[in-house]
């Protein structure tokens, strides 16, 4: 089974959210609770099976620490983390 962690960036591969980037907020058996801070808010995360997500293996340390200590993050923090991740991914792709 794939190993996902809170704070990890994932891409949806199925459903109407396919292709969008999210952050894992919680892991429960084969389900992940994900949010992007816009369409999927932190207060009402999407419950998705791991098999319908592509794990990146990249974790945002700030989000991971907030989830482990306070068990709370804001939509703004999630949006900021995703925009930084996507910005870095675009820059990495341009270098290659």
- What is the C-alpha radius of gyration, as a whole number of Å? 13 Å
Strand content: 25-35%
The dominant shape is: globular
Q: Major β-sheet, in short?
A: 5 strands, antiparallel
Give structural attributes:
2 helices, 5-stranded antiparallel β-sheet, 96 residues
Give an overview in words:
With 96 residues, the chain is α+β, with helices and mostly antiparallel strands. It is built from two helices and five strands, in the order βββββαα. Strand 1 (8-12) and strand 2 form a beta hairpin. The longest helix is centred in the last third of the chain and has 21 residues, at 75-95.
Set down the secondary structure blueprint.
Elements: E1 8-12, E2 21-28, E3 31-35, E4 46-49, E5 53-59, H1 61-69, H2 75-95
Antiparallel strand pairs: 1-2, 1-5, 2-3, 3-4
Q: Can you summarize this structure?
A:
31% of the residues lie in helices and 30% in strands. It has 96 residues and is α+β, with helices and mostly antiparallel strands. A hairpin with a 2-residue loop joins strand 2 (21-28) and strand 3 (31-35).
